[in-house]
């Protein structure tokens, strides 16, 4: 879980598999299952990362205290700060989670997407899924 303190470590989230370079990659960091994975008001951090022109990947960088965090990522193609869904609830934009767990009809549990952040740098790869 979230470990307080003044020490900061770097978490680099490499997101790949984007279907285009439109929009931004949004990453959300949670210290607990509360709000997982879409209630950004309960997240530790959330912020968009620009996608380099013509690329289908982006890297988000966060400074966090060491500890365990759940990580979710979306390809926010229209920059509206949420994962858009169709009329029956299927995501219309790409999404992924730390550890790249299997995703069925709903998001994986918080425990499946936990990253242990240590200093100086922890790097993860998240492959985005489009349904």
Structural topology:
Blueprint: E1 9-16, E2 24-30, E3 45-50, E4 57-64, E5 67-76, E6 95-97, E7 114-117, E8 121-127
Parallel strand pairs: 1-8
Antiparallel strand pairs: 1-4, 2-3, 2-5, 5-6, 5-7
State the distance separating the first and last CA atoms.
Answer: 31 Å
Q: Strand share of the residues? A: 35-45%
Q: Taking Cα atoms only, what radius of gyration do you get, to the nearest Å?
A: 14 Å
Q: Average pLDDT across residues? A: 94
Uncertain segments are none
Strand segment tally: 8
Q: Major sheet: size, sense and barrel closure?
A: 5 strands, antiparallel
What pattern of helices and strands is seen along the backbone? EEEEEEEE
Helix content: under 10%
Helical stretch tally: 0
Question: By helix and strand content, what is the structural category?
Answer: mainly beta
What general outline do the C-alpha atoms trace? globular
Give your account of this protein's structure:
This protein is mainly β. The chain has strands at residues 9-16, 24-30, 45-50, 57-64, 67-76, 95-97, 114-117, 121-127. Strands 2, 3, 5, 6 and 7 form a 5-stranded antiparallel β-sheet that branches. A 3-stranded mixed β-sheet has the order 4-1-8, with no helix packed on it.
